């Protein structure tokens, strides 16, 4: 079907009244389903004839006069959006007039009423009685009214303590629905990704419908950040300020949010005498308080005084009218309704002190649980915090986020019922990646059911969902599947929202996937397939069949292999990669060079050459193997970071490469070597490129090297060592078999040595790792270990290289390479 014919069909589908019993204007399944009402009785409205407009846009000009934030001016902005759409599609200049003026109908003919006004009141419309962000579209003999639930005209709807993300823009949502439904506009991405159908006639049949979002939280900071000049990509065309995320109807009509809060560094500054109270001290005497970065801090949730101290600060916050913000310093502060508490983003395998032992806060069945080892510790703390909050701030609610190894509900009876002022956002690491996996769905439904019971038979309000990091195939597929979650989770999931953590920022090249997802967050009944089928034709013309087949193959392989736990190389073997490349090539051949379809296809195609290269590298790769030479005992090296000993120059190089399978050599190569003696493993890394080495920053924000050692070949466990260019280091251990346990971040390698030297255009790291410090025997000659080594270059331009092809999951032992310990003289 040609593009013009398709556009004509879209408009015909929008304008056709339909037979008796049919829903008017509902013929196009690619649009959001809305709640149609019986249409009013009047003649068709000839709004535009032969390119001439016979109407004006009427608003209450005095409304929203107290609203300072532009993005909350729903009515005024709705009118401007509508005027722009008529200008783009019909080439007409439509005036915006005050609804209170006399004689408007005589002067302009028809009126399109935008937002609540005396004229919508006369029609007996009650938009403020609609649910938050909802809207109503109703035609009448004199025109059309679009009016919604707008916080901008509700006294006290917005509070100074509320985040600017909190917005009730019903009318603006209604305007966007109107121009899509009746003008055929489509918003896929800025610039070439926006369809403005050209026409010279517009006649509307009688229509009446309402709509409002199913989920209240549909916001993404990453989408908004991608629209700034700093993050704009060339494929979108010249930079132009845009509120594009609202065209996708992203929004947040709930004050509930969740994150890691308060900010540990800031809270410590407020209470320098309470650092030992606030932060956890491990049995090895390490205090989890890190002033250099967010990770490395850990609140002592075994100490209920921490809850009281936090409520003390919350009382100060509210008594100050929101001016006392020092404990948060802009980091997810409280708002007029909700208090947010979330542990620092640091993973600890366990918490151990007298309180934990005396109260048996880690049940025996949970000691090795990756999801629930700390659940009872946290539940005890959350209950204490909620009760303290209820006693001192009874009108506030507590938002918490079960996370990491306290994601499971508690086991102990005394901690298994939360106060009624608590709401949850549950992190689901498997979704939407495994939505098509029945076992994963059943497991998470049961988990939400358990939380439902902990909440006193109240649903989990929000979900925190995750994208597929470092996986182009997953990022192109999984977001659209979010539509299925509400049906799968049933009554155990409320309507507070679904937050999709994009992991690594927003990538417009997968716009179609995210477009479908955010539409489904507005209404899970959104027909994802119909919407995607429509956009292939609208956006790509003759290339559409090839891209539709390309996408279908991606989805089928994900559903049938990846979602069920299959490996990437099993889902996308060479035969599938060949077919995908062929389809993309056919699409490129089908478009006219330099055409708008060609420009759109350039954005769509952007990630795939690298993705195909890496996927082939993964399929064809063999595990790397390195021979570790034995150092004569008489010449054991001094650990000085200089690599001056002759045996270092004789040791073979250990190659680091793209850990995703890419074939290009590193732009900043590393000369890495290993050697061993009877009691230690030695390593030296000579790295090109001036490092980022800021002593005020944390280890993982500076240039660093990570070493993963799994003694033997059975993969029972691994040790991790990370050292940055300033000399900061981190050590940890995880047992994987027979039962996987959380990472032990408290372990320390006795006798560990390191030395660093930094030159003008590179740096050198030298290490000694005693076998006894790992609590393992010295390797036998010709035995092997599984190993991975990573160089993280964070200085500009950044680069990430590794010994093993682990697809960005550095600890993936299954993909580790091997090292073999040679004997004397080898």
Question: What labels describe this entry?
Answer:
globular; single chain; 826 residues; alpha/beta; 23 helices; 28% helix; disordered N terminus
Shape: globular
* Poorly predicted ranges: 1-23
Strand content: 15-25%
**SS-based class:** alpha/beta
Using only CA atoms, what is the Rg?
30 Å
Helix content: 25-40%
Mean pLDDT: 92
Question: How would you describe what is shown here?
Answer:
The protein has 826 residues and is α/β, with parallel strands linked by helices. It has 23 helices and 28 strands. The strands form 5 sheets. Strands 18, 19, 20, 21, 22, 23, 24, 25, 26, 27 and 28 form an 11-stranded mixed beta sheet that branches. Strands 1-12-7-8-6-4-5 form a 7-stranded mixed beta sheet. Helix 2 (74-90) packs parallel to helix 5. The protein is globular, with a radius of gyration of 30 Å. 48% of the residues are buried. Mean pLDDT is 92; it is low at 1-23.
Give a topology summary.
Layout: H1 3-15, E1 35-36, E2 45-49, E3 52-53, E4 55-59, H2 74-90, E5 96-98, H3 104-108, E6 110-114, H4 118-122, E7 135-140, E8 143-148, H5 170-183, E9 186-187, E10 194-195, E11 202-204, E12 208-211, H6 221-226, H7 244-247, H8 264-270, H9 275-278, H10 305-319, E13 338-341, H11 354-358, H12 375-392, E14 397-400, E15 422-428, H13 438-454, E16 460-466, H14 472-475, H15 485-489, E17 493-501, H16 511-522, H17 528-540, H18 544-560, H19 568-571, H20 574-590, H21 596-605, H22 608-620, E18 625-630, H23 646-650, E19 670-676, E20 680-688, E21 704-710, E22 717-724, E23 729-735, E24 753-759, E25 762-770, E26 784-793, E27 799-802, E28 817-821
Helix pairs in contact: 2-5, 10-12, 16-17, 17-18, 18-20
